Amino acid sequence: MTKRLFNEFDSVSSKQWKQKIQFDLKGADYNSTLIWKTSEDISVKPFYNADDLHEGLTTSNTKTTEWKICQSIFVANVEKSNLKAISAIKRGADSIKFIIPSETVSIEILLKNIDLNTTSIHFELQFLSINFIKIISTISAKAKIYYHTDIIGNLVKTGNWFNNLKDDFSQFDAIVKQTKSLSINASLYQNAGATIVQQLGYALAHANEYLNHLDTTLTSEEKESININFNITVGSNYFFEIAKLRALRLLWKTLASKYKINTNCHITATPSIRNKTLYDYNTNMLRTTTECMSAILGGANTIYNAPYDSLFHKNNEFGERIARNQLLVLKHESYFDKIDNPTDGAYYIESLTNQLAEKGLELFKDIEKSGGFLKQLKAGTIQRKIKESATKEQQLFDRGKSILLGTNKHVNPNDNMKNELEIYPFVKTNQRKTLIEPIIEKRLSETLEQKRLKNEL
């Protein structure tokens, strides 16, 4: 039936489509009228077909039906954090991320009454300790555990190593061997204003520093058993963000195969803070919804959704419940868990994926030719490039070319926030000595919001 149906229609080439469009434009220039360029220097066309896929269609190995809803919990109080995790699981979370500030936390109490057979656990340690990792491994030996330990990520964010280069890499080696896992925190680049191509190139170069180091310290068997996790933030450019995650998997597979390491990777995604706003804050729910949709369709394995009021409110049950329910609606009412790889075969997304992967790989090669990621961080090159991209994006926002509804477009002048602030919503600057210039996350609307706060009655 299907074959007979499609045999009734003649195929239409890209050239034929373009000729028809040019005829309908009645003299207007096709390129200047309908083609626009992105900050990644990618030309977006009005239509795509199979002719645009020079390498043919790709088949993803991810399973959109298996993505996990994650609840992130900062462990200030062990008993309360444990109860909060149990409550989140009962209300729909199937993954928990514990952010642990110190070694005094009791893992046994933290995981009490949590079914580790059905709930995956993520640990983000704000310190470096192989002994603490061993305690976790002993208590949760059979559980699905993800360790988010990234010494280079800490250097990028703070400007310093946890201790020093030698000690950090020594403990890093021990942690990788103990956990059989490796984590790359690439979320900072997007939140600081890097383009998608930069995010991909820097994430790959970041990972390559580890692979290059581990190539001489791990056996072939150990390398094959390593599980890799990328922490990624997702912005509002819907189709490009879908393609970004797909391109990351392609790039990782290319790089990992060179080192003969596990070519599969786990992606933990969360919405960007770059476009979140203090005023008209309910709009943040719309932004995070589309960003989570991009993450799902792009093939993220675990998704944590940020509460709409996290900029200015302390952690609260209502905001976290809304954020979790957004994912539950996507999963169980919008059927975002019914089809594996629904974007496979979409000409536009396939084309974007290939272009982003090619440009990301090109940037990665340039970084390696210049001495590698750490060397460019030390020279300040990575920081400068991200600042340049962030400045261009900021200028578009300031001129009203990049729009955040309720903030620089359709503003409600009666919206007052001064009395709502429970936490400081802007970049904090603390003078301290650092080895390198840290990369700072900053929202687009910060300067505008600070002016509005000052002018509030």
What global shape is seen? globular
Q: How many helical elements?
A: 18
Q: How would you describe the oligomerization state of the chains in this entry?
A: single chain
- Mean of pLDDT: 93
Total DSSP E strands: 10
Reading side by side through the largest sheet, how are the strands ordered?
6-5-4-3-10-9-8-7
- Flag low-confidence runs: none
How much helix, percentage-wise, in residues? 40-55%
> How much of the residues is beta strand, in percent?
5-15%
N-to-C CA distance? 69 Å
Overview of this structure, please?
The chain is of the alpha/beta class and 457 residues long. The protein has 18 helices and ten strands. An eight-stranded parallel beta sheet has the order 6-5-4-3-10-9-8-7. The termini are far apart.
Helices and strands in order:
Blueprint: H1 2-7, H2 14-25, H3 30-34, E1 36-37, E2 43-44, E3 68-74, H4 78-90, E4 95-100, H5 107-110, E5 120-125, H6 130-139, E6 145-147, H7 151-158, H8 165-179, E7 181-185, H9 187-191, H10 196-214, H11 220-224, E8 227-234, H12 238-259, E9 265-271, H13 283-298, E10 302-304, H14 317-332, H15 347-369, H16 373-379, H17 381-398, H18 446-455
Parallel strand pairs: 3-4, 3-10, 4-5, 5-6, 7-8, 8-9, 9-10
Antiparallel strand pairs: 1-2
Throw out a few tags for this protein:
two-stranded antiparallel ribbon, alpha/beta, eight-stranded parallel sheet, 11% strand, 457 residues
Short description:
The protein has helices at 2-7, 14-25, 30-34, 78-90, 107-110, 130-139, 151-158, 165-179, 187-191, 196-214, 220-224, 238-259, 283-298, 317-332, 347-369, 373-379, 381-398, 446-455; strands at residues 36-37, 43-44, 68-74, 95-100, 120-125, 145-147, 181-185, 227-234, 265-271, 302-304. It is α/β, with parallel strands linked by helices and 457 residues long.
